[in-house]
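Support case: user asked for a sample of complex input and structure output to validate their parser. Sending the pair below.
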Amino acid sequence: MTLRRSWLPSANTPDTDFPLNNLPCGVFSDDLPPRCGIAIGDMILDVAALEAEGILTLADHPVFDVPFWNDCMELGPAAWADLRAQITAMLAEGSTKQFVVEDHLVPMASATLHMPFLVSEYTDFYAGRHHAFNVGSMFRDPANALPPNWLHIPIGYNGRASSVVVSGTDVRRPWGQLKPQGSDAPIFAPSARFDFELELGAVVGTGSDGPITVAQADAMIFGYVLLNDWSARDIQAWEYQPLGPFQAKATATTISPWIVMRAALEPFRTPTPPREVPLLPYLREPGPMLYDIAVSVALTPESGAESTISRTNYAEMYYSAPQQLTHHASSGCPMAVGDLLGSGTISGPERANRGSLLELSWGGKEPLEITGGTRTFLQDGDTITLRGHATGAGYRIGFGDCTGRVTPALKDWPQ
Amino acid sequence: MTLRRSWLPSANTPDTDFPLNNLPCGVFSDDLPPRCGIAIGDMILDVAALEAEGILTLADHPVFDVPFWNDCMELGPAAWADLRAQITAMLAEGSTKQFVVEDHLVPMASATLHMPFLVSEYTDFYAGRHHAFNVGSMFRDPANALPPNWLHIPIGYNGRASSVVVSGTDVRRPWGQLKPQGSDAPIFAPSARFDFELELGAVVGTGSDGPITVAQADAMIFGYVLLNDWSARDIQAWEYQPLGPFQAKATATTISPWIVMRAALEPFRTPTPPREVPLLPYLREPGPMLYDIAVSVALTPESGAESTISRTNYAEMYYSAPQQLTHHASSGCPMAVGDLLGSGTISGPERANRGSLLELSWGGKEPLEITGGTRTFLQDGDTITLRGHATGAGYRIGFGDCTGRVTPALKDWPQ
């Protein structure tokens, strides 16, 4: 796939996240309240205004004059394709609509970005093999790092939708129950091992209420976001047995401001790795369901310089989002428009490819070098920035930066 | 507390779940669409109609003409108390409003009951000590049945709000990954160990976005429901390590059609049991936070007779719902109106007090006698009915039956 040229010059530069091939979905505000927009180059196309003026029509009722993409998602995959076709025609080089559309471009630099959709429910998976192996080695037993079910089930747990925030939102270091090493009893204190996790999130755009095949699940996915699953490792270690992570993962989960639609990622499909043991038939993929998306993590200390601390690829996952969605629905669990599925931490085989500080510093034992210092876990004032790009011929598909800054814990706890 | 007498005779009988002291909140339909109602004796008071006619006023906008109680909950505790005061005055013996109110009573027998509120998110706890001990003995090690954190943390996991259904909804036996004993690999098949769990659910009526004390958490709870956390034990055993139960608990969770408001339960407050180890200060209770509510489970085979298979009391819990809510919010997790917190299975000390078939049949090894047969786990056609009552002088506070019937699994799985 090559670059689709737009009459908007900033959409044709090789380093923009948002060429005409991308058209990701976000929610923005300027002088007017939050509404739906599509990123193009360094601008946001105000699709709510286009719809109000009758230039863009997707349904017999407005779907873009709201601060979330759920109403558009509800229209289903045919409408999503129609949206891309209409917007592509408007923004393409030579479009006859340039002069009416131009009035509805808002500079991204002057806009505020909001949560792009209402999260119905949030589920986080554990589908990165290197990550599962690393964590299993540290939390449990290096000889049996991978749990016995791991090669058969896309292991996941339900997270907390209310804690999902958009890129740019500060994240306060949590308090929690911790059990200091060598102590007999837990204490209640701010987390000393606060961490990030590099993930992609799949946004479910079509609901279900019964069994779904992997192919059906793929068609239900509206798009993907970058996702940082902030994790308090000391809270996690003490709480997670026997019912899994709970408060360790409930402080915040940050997503990128832009949902990259599945259609924009089509040229970058890539298969899951060879299966070590055969999957049960309900989980088998009819074709490639991962994407070749290079992802990275940068850490910027307060008033310090940015260091890129991890580079890996979404193609490292052992299970794809459609497989996870199929498994999620397998018990009869109804899935809904706006459900968010975290991929699990994306770690690669080498130290430089690890998607969390837990892994990068090996549980705090091997401090990581960054510009002007070292890190085991996050310090107050640290900003974490996730980035992701699929690269075509002369263009790339990006999500925009997914950032969050750690602010100090509350000083006191109310009694 | 003694019976408050109503001019409605059926509200004054000692065996009704719904005397004037109760006034629980539900959603019903008859010839008109679903709307809010309050149970009284064998009738439902149509509060949406009372509001429309100006007989009942709680806010400057209508809150009862919708098929959920969330809008009323949003008004906050002062409005909840106001609602009870207005309805109590209308329905009390000697009320001057009897003749206008009578027109808005709908016979419960002719109404359909719906989900009483929109579930924002659903969390299930594990706060019954006997249950945790029994399950720990079976799933893990009898010598270390109680996990080390159990006496310090109200252990919980996030469940799936989309799977919560109202009493009377059929529950289809799920398919899932199971690992038959002695087998090397899992299979994908209908669950053979499908079970119920006897619980109470707390309905959060006020949101939060920061730390909350146990007293504040108590004030945030709108009311309580009966809750059956259907559980596929074979799926659970294979999937739950290391991230907790997932599909085993996602088929359905059934709640009673009536939310009993906290105010109705005030006379029945009772303390949590003595602490074996002191709780951390953030979890300490300022007063009694459990309730003396006798709960029971009945099993009715298809075309068979009902057998009561368990009787216990909500006062058996080690942690109260306010403690669970305080812990839930402790990491900074925002809590919302409509959040549902399952208590955890309520089991008492003896076999006859166990709140699940897993415990009653000790993992299937000790079949339970029922009228006309035995049970290890649920069979197709079995109906489970949960009941709960707090008993005052000459009256009782009930939730209405919380029932669900197991229907056969899907015959085939789509490929």
